[in-house]
Structures are given as structure tokens and as C-alpha cells.
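New to this. Help decode the following:
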Amino acid sequence: MILTDDWFTTLSHTEAGALVFVTVRKGIEGFRSSGKLRVRVDISWPYPAEADGMPDEETARLIEDIEPKLRRIMERDKLAILTGNYTGGGQKDWTFYTRHLPTFGERLNACLEPYPTIPLDIHCQEDPDWEDYAEMLALEQPEDEDCEA
């Protein structure tokens, strides 16, 4: 199976009406149907936000530094794959599916060790059918065919 780097981004809102950017990975049906990545790990980082709910400049730089490292360390041997992330409403969320939770935790700690303590909220749940991912994937909007130049 080949891990794609094909994503789409759409907009959503929190219950309070704050704008949220939702980014979802496409082309990973083989991983979903393999049954190997059965545990969903949701990592949430409430951050200092600007008035629009987006991260302040310092936090945005930290997110931009951490996210690719986190992907690399988790995906290098397909221990886990990042299926989507959300940014907005004062929070950054990453959703991974993993095949081994203890190793995932060890790698997460190793990845974040060089950084100041980050207030993460981590939830793990069996999701062998990737129901959460299916909901994220359903957010993709078809290209607007009615637009004409």
C-alpha cells in the first residue's frame, strides 16, 4: 500500500460559530480496508487564539514545526497515519489511525520532547471501520460545475 499525500481542505464551524479549517487525506482506502489500523487517536491542542479563533503567530509557527515531524515519526513504518486535522476555534486537532497504541505514545513523547510542554488532550478509541474518517471524507465538496468564466 502506498501512502498518498493527496488532501482536500474545507471550511466548517464550531458550535459557537468560529471558523474551522478541516484538512482530510484522500486515497487511503487500502489502509482503511486492511483492518490493521484499528485504533483512532485524536490529539487536541487548545491554543492561544486570535480574535478569529486561529492560532497566534508563535503558536502557528510551533504547529508548522511540529506537524511534519509528527507525521514523519508516525508514518515512517506505517505505525500510524494522519487522516485529517482541524484548525480553528482556538484548537488544533489531529486524527491518526494506529496499529499499536503503546508505540504510538512512545513516539509522540519522543517527537514532543524538544518542545516546551504543550497542553494536549488525547483520546483513543477502537474504530476498526474508520467511521470518523468516513465522516471527514464526506465533507469533500464537488467542484462547482455551475461556475463559468
User: Anything to note?
Assistant: Confidence is low (pLDDT under 50) at residues 144-149. Residues 1 and 146 are 36 Å apart (CA to CA). Strands lie at 6-13, 19-26, 39-46, 80-88, 91-98, 121-126.
